[in-house]
Specification:
It is a single chain. The protein is 46% helix and 14% strand. The strands form 7 sheets. It has an 8-stranded mixed sheet. It is elongated and about 125 Å long. InterPro entries: P-loop_NTPase (IPR027417), PDDEXK-like_dom_sf (IPR011604), PDDEXK_AddAB-type (IPR038726), Restrct_endonuc-II-like (IPR011335). This is PD-(D/E)XK nuclease family protein.
């Protein structure tokens, strides 16, 4: 690396002042370079010395006053109070804080700029209606200045002014008075702000006007863009022989007037007349031929991932390194991507990117609803966010209980009264605020509780504590302001709190002289590093394409010499270019993806250097790697050791029952059978805003049971036309049963939410369709069995490892009845109700009695028939499936290519089913056959076990093998 700028400064100080340093003051724009200059001074002197005094420019100027600094929030409340006093004096209606807030920040920003640049307030805010008045009031302006102002105001002189323009003009006329009242208010409160300090010192009104006389010499190091107050004072102090200036510049952009990077230093030297204490600027940039590595990343955050790889290849402990964030929003992704390192971060860790803001923001959003809008319910997503946030520290037990409660009732909105979470450090998080003056005290209490729960055990915890302390200070400042004015709405207070705490950040400090340094470009002034990594070097970010909001239009700003967007471009160019003077290794990253937030182009500063300089730009485009991995490792569960012990103990020794559903689960996926019935991995409680077919099925089964239950035990046949009497009761029965499913008491349709009403409508149509089917197709019926889930258990012998063992089969019988057809035939039926996509049609019976069965409903119904016949001794049960979607067209009897499942064909297939059942159960308990997923099985999107199937290789078809 070429000799660093601050090394040059240190050597000049030694040559110029020797050991006479205690009465010397050294002033920088910011604090960071102070440590570096101290290090260079120690190296240059090589012995213990009395240190000079160090200041930032604001600290130095503040020596001219004893007034305390007014916080930004205090200034805002002063301005609001004074503005309303002026409105009252003018006879206008007073503005609320909500109305005034949007313009207050702009007014304060404009006041500050006008102070820094010593602009005459009365002149710039003068009421300007047309070109004639401009000529009269501003005859002292140059022709160019008059042209700029006339250009801006011509739109206000055509066909009169609109209401908005009139209001704007009145505000402009009022602002000089407001400005003077604001400055008087600060003086009365014995407070000040930096713009006032600057102006008072430049215009000779400062309390300690001769602040520079307190030092033998004052050295201003590394300054670039000076406001008019600084330029005036610096020139004056130089003429008095009290000030020296050290400018960090290069001939490459200083002497070439086309180079925007040298704009301000040219002004400082050639217009203001400030002398560079280092003499002639070096000519480094124009001669360097070093490599510059330019990386086009595939996305904004991808820059940080790419940087991680580069750092691992290039970093060494004997080199100084800095990551410069042209886009400071990349800080958090960067911290997450860094290799093992202890970074020193000047920019600070922002509250808005921390987990703390998540919980504070959630609190504010919740109370917009329950405290301002007076809602008595909040979304279940807000509850989920709260109980899963690590800082709320909700106990696992209470979290699961609440999740289960919400899932059982399927509460899309949860009642506020039900949300007292005792185990959390924030038990009253969901307690509504009654009075508007309780907003900030309640939020301060929340911050205090978070503070007390954070143990200061590591740096991250310390950062969180610092963020909370700074947030608390801001809240107290807001409270002081709110206490002095009329009560504000809860909504506006929350909006203002969000804006007020957004700038809060906490420094992450390491060793500023060693290791990896992270900072913004502005903070890198005066500093040089061996290795520099610049992130976010996109056009539109470097330089920025927008300025801060202002009431002073660009043409008017240009006329008065105020900063404009081009000035920001020049400063950005300088901050970027100066690193090319010194650093050995330069790596620049930009996002090459075009989207709504990115042009996909590198900064024009890069293109300029590439075209004009001798640097060797090595361009690299990040490519998404294409992996051709070996076949994935399939998840196989061998039936050995603990797995086999668990299976044998559970199903053979203890006799756990195997249901029809368990059987078809195995046919679909043996792996899922293991996860669900052997490992017993339960589905977590959840809530979905999608329609739940399983609950619909339960509602229909329960309602059908209640309709037919009065007929159970009657020996005589009942005419099916009697069911007409039940049709009128269907809707009420469904309402009550939906309530049972959601653990709530619903009395009528109005108690149901929107999705429950949809469920009610579908269930009603299905139940009525089932009843009408029976009335249309049969003369009479007699109920034999109904919704019996206790009595149908069957010992079933199978062979396991050469021994005969017994497993328990278990059938839930929805309905067994005898019916008289219109042909006066009596049939005994077993009926199963289905609400999903099941069907009675199948192609081939061999594909039914097989893995990944073609007709799961038929397998289950034959299972129920077999268990019922074996337990009761009844025979000749016909399996019927009531599929509401298709029963009008397809009927209820299963049918395939070789006939309908009745008569001799049914008898034959029942025998085949028993053989298939035995073979399947023996396969389940075959220790040589592992549990694995069937790759051909259909997987539903909401299948909770999807994660386990990901690596299942697809079976190759015959076509693939050709």
């Amino acid at each position: 690396m070429n000799k660093p700028f601050l090394r040059h400064v240190a050597e000049d100080i030694k040559n110029r002042f020797g050991n006479d340093l205690p009465e010397i003051a050294i002033v920088f724009n910011n604090k960071r370079p102070i440590t570096y200059l101290k290090k260079h001074l120690a190296d240059v002197y090589g012995q213990a010395i009395w240190s000079p005094q160090f200041f930032t420019i604001q600290e130095f100027f503040s020596l001219s006053t004893s007034a305390t600094e007014a916080s930004s929030l205090s200034q805002f409340f002063y301005l609001y109070q004074l503005h309303n006093e002026l409105l009252q004096h003018e006879g206008h209606e007073l503005e609320t804080l909500e109305e005034f807030y949007p313009i207050a920040e702009i007014i304060l920003s404009d006041f500050s700029q006008l102070d820094y640049d010593l602009v005459n307030i009365d002149h710039i805010y003068m009421e300007l209606y047309d070109t004639t008045k401009i000529d009269l009031e501003f005859q002292h302006f140059t022709v160019e200045q008059q042209h700029f102002i006339r250009q801006f105001w011509q739109s206000f002189s055509i066909a009169g002014h609109t209401g908005i323009q009139q209001r704007f003009l009145k505000l402009w006329k009022r602002l000089p008075i407001l400005y003077k009242a604001f400055k008087e208010k600060l003086r009365h409160e014995k407070q000040s702000n930096y713009p006032t300090i600057y102006r008072d010192l430049a215009e000779g009104r400062a309390e300690n006007q001769h602040v520079i006389q307190d030092f033998k010499q004052v050295l201003f190091v590394g300054f670039n863009a000076l406001n008019n107050a600084e330029a005036f004072l610096f020139k004056q102090w130089q003429e008095e022989g009290k000030a020296l200036f050290y400018f960090d510049a290069d001939v490459y952009y200083l002497e070439d007037k086309q180079q925007e990077a040298g704009l301000f230093i040219r002004r400082n030297i050639y217009q203001t007349g400030l002398i560079n204490a280092l003499g002639e600027s070096p000519n480094i940039l124009g001669r360097r031929t070093a490599d510059v590595h330019l990386y086009a990343s595939t996305g904004k955050v991808s820059q940080t991932k790419l940087l991680h790889e580069i750092l691992e290849q290039t970093e060494s402990s004997d080199k100084t390194s800095a990551i410069l964030l042209a886009d400071e929003s990349l800080l958090v992704p960067l911290l997450q991507s860094l290799p093992d390192a202890t970074p020193n971060i000047t920019t600070g860790y922002p509250l808005v990117q921390s987990p703390l803001f998540g919980i504070l923001d959630l609190w504010m959003d919740v109370h917009q609803d329950i405290s301002y809008l007076k809602k008595d319910k909040i979304s279940f997503q807000a509850v989920e966010t709260f109980i899963n946030h690590p800082l709320t520290k909700v106990s696992k037990k209470e979290k699961l209980q609440l999740q289960q409660y919400i899932a059982d009732k399927q509460l899309y909105e949860v009642g506020v009264d039900d949300l007292i979470i005792k185990s959390s450090v924030l038990p009253n998080f969901f307690k509504p605020i009654i009075k508007s003056d309780e907003v900030i005290p309640t939020l301060i209490d929340l911050v205090d509780r978070l503070l007390s729960s954070i143990a200061e055990q590591d740096r991250i915890r310390q950062i969180e504590s610092n963020l909370l302390v700074e947030t608390k200070k801001t809240l107290y400042q807001l409270k002081l302001g709110f206490d002095k004015i009329e009560p504000l709405s809860i909504s506006f207070q929350i909006g203002l709190i969000k804006k007020a705490i957004a700038p809060v950040n906490s420094a992450i400090e390491g060793n500023p002289l060693k290791g990896l340094q992270i900072m913004g470009l502005l903070e890198s002034r005066c500093l040089n590093f061996d290795n520099v990594y610049i992130l976010g070097a996109n056009e539109g970010i470097l330089p920025k394409t927008s300025n801060s909001p202002t009431f002073l239009p660009n043409a008017l700003r240009r006329a008065y010499g105020l900063p404009i967007l081009e000035n920001q471009d020049a400063l950005s160019a300088y901050l970027f270019y100066r690193h090319f003077q010194y650093s050995d290794h330069i790596h620049v990253f930009y996002n090459s993806i075009v989207d709504e937030n990115s042009t996909g182009e590198e900064s024009r500063f890069i293109k300029q250097l590439e075209f004009e300089s001798k640097f060797n730009f090595i361009k690299k485009t990040q490519q998404q790697s294409i992996f051709f991995p070996s076949p994935p490792t399939e998840l196989l569960v061998e039936k050995r050791g603990k797995v086999w012990d668990k299976m044998y103990h559970t199903f053979i020794e203890r006799g756990r029952r195997i249901s029809a559903t368990a059987l078809t689960t195995y046919l679909q996926s043996p792996l899922q059978f293991f996860l669900k019935h052997v490992a017993e991995i339960k589905e977590p409680p959840s809530i979905t805003q999608e329609f739940e077919m399983n609950k619909l099925g339960t509602v229909i089964h329960e309602v059908m049971e209640k309709i037919f239950l009065p007929f159970k035990g009657i020996n005589e046949f009942t005419p099916t036309q009697r069911l007409k009497e039940n049709l009128a009761d269907v809707d009420a029965l469904i309402v009550r049963e939906i309530g049972n499913q959601y653990l709530s008491e619903f009395k009528n349709l109005d108690d149901l939410n929107s999705l429950q009403r949809i469920m009610h409508k579908i269930a009603s149509e299905y139940v009525k369709m089932y009843l009408q089917h029976d009335m249309e197709n049969y003369k009479a019926f007699r109920i034999i069995e109904l919704e019996n889930d206790e009595d149908y258990i069957l010992d079933f012998p199978i062979h396991i490892s050469g021994k005969t063992e017994t497993v328990n089969l278990y059938g839930i019988i929805d309905r067994v009845d005898e019916v008289i057809t219109h042909d006066n035939l009596i049939k005994t039926r077993i009926v199963d109700y289905k609400t999903g996509g099941d069907r009675i049609i199948f192609k081939e019976i061999d594909k039914v009695f097989a893995a990944n069965t073609e007709n799961k409903a038929l397998v289950q119904t034959l299972f129920y028939s077999y268990v019922f016949e074996q337990v009761t001794g009844r025979r000749n049960l016909e399996p019927h499936l009531y599929v509401a979607r298709k029963m009008r067209e397809d009927g209820t009897l299963f049918s395939g290519k070789f006939g309908v499942m009745e008569g001799e064909y049914l008898i034959e297939q029942k025998k085949n089913f028993v053989d298939f059942l035995k073979a399947t159960l023996e396969e389940i308990f075959n220790a040589e056959i592992p549990f694995r997923h069937n790759p051909d099985a259909h997987i539903y999107e909401n299948d909770p076990y999807t994660l386990f199937y990901r690596n299942t290789p697809m079976q190759q078809t015959d076509e693939n093998l050709l």
